Amino acid sequence: MKVNKITFSQIKLKWEIQQMTSAYIHAEQHIIKKLADGIDITGASEVAEEVQQIEFMYDAFGNAKTITPKDKIKEKLDALEIQGNKLLEQEKYELFIELKEIYEKYKQEYDRL
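User: That's the sequence. What structure does it adopt?
Assistant: Structure tokens below.
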């Protein structure tokens, strides 16, 4: 009896798998038809907008570090400071004033984050 029960369970499982496979095929065909008509029923376009790209930076030991927007702004602030010092050395005060305004905007954003 145990052999018959195992065989019946295997047959039943194969039947359920076959039914699930055909249901998936029909669902995919339905989705393809709707996409061909220009109707997005999957919600994939909404999800694609929400996906954010994550950037990594590796240190000398090969450890990954996530680069946050605050880190990017900090790098820009450092570069602006260096550029500001160069402008002061060259006595280009008008450009320095404009650079300082840009620096202040980045600084506000950095403080906000």
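Residues 26 and 108 are 54 Å apart (CA to CA).
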